[in-house]
Design a protein that fits this description.
The strands form two sheets. A four-stranded antiparallel sheet has the order 4-5-6-7, with no helix packed on it. The protein has a three-stranded antiparallel sheet with strand order 1-3-2. It is an alpha+beta fold and 150 residues long. It has four helices and seven strands.
């Protein structure tokens, strides 16, 4: 568990260093780099834990506080031994949008206050995925994560 937390903190340092003072300075590559780091971080988190607060804290590195709680409590169930993501539950999967394919279209909207990334699929598990990145306490964080099912 300590190794996961340590690796997570190292990963967070690099993501939060990306031009965090001004979202308007971000380019498309910065957005993809940030989202790829988020994906790598989430894949390292345990699917079972005795401390749900530690998992929430790890999500809070990249997500707004309330969104972190919403994600964790929607994915984990309480058991006799702690908390776990049920077998086969893919709800915790974080997708980095493609850079555009024949079966999806990606739009990135850059503003001074936020960056909105939307991927619309022709077919698949989702019809659409949308992320909003904003500065929270001077650090880039995902403040909205919408998944629209077909």
């Amino acid at each position: 568990m300590m190794i996961i937390l340590f690796v997570g903190l190292l990963t967070a340092c690099t993501a939060n260093d990306i031009k965090n003072e001004d979202l308007s300075a971000w380019q498309e590559d910065d957005v993809y780099s940030f989202l790829e780091e988020v994906e790598q971080h989430i894949r390292q988190l345990p699917v079972e834990t005795d401390s749900i607060e530690q998992v929430i804290a790890q999500y809070e590195i990249y997500f707004a506080s309330q969104l972190s709680k919403d994600i964790v409590y929607s994915n984990f169930i309480e058991t006799e031994n702690g908390w776990k993501i049920p077998d086969g539950d893919a709800g915790y999967i974080f997708f980095v949008p493609s850079r555009g394919t024949d079966s999806s279209e990606v739009t990135i909207d850059f503003t001074n206050d936020y960056i909105k990334i939307q991927e619309v699929y022709e077919f698949g598990m989702f019809k659409e995925i949308e992320y909003t990145i904003e500065l929270v306490d001077g650090k880039p964080k995902i403040t909205e994560w919408k998944r629209v099912f077909d």
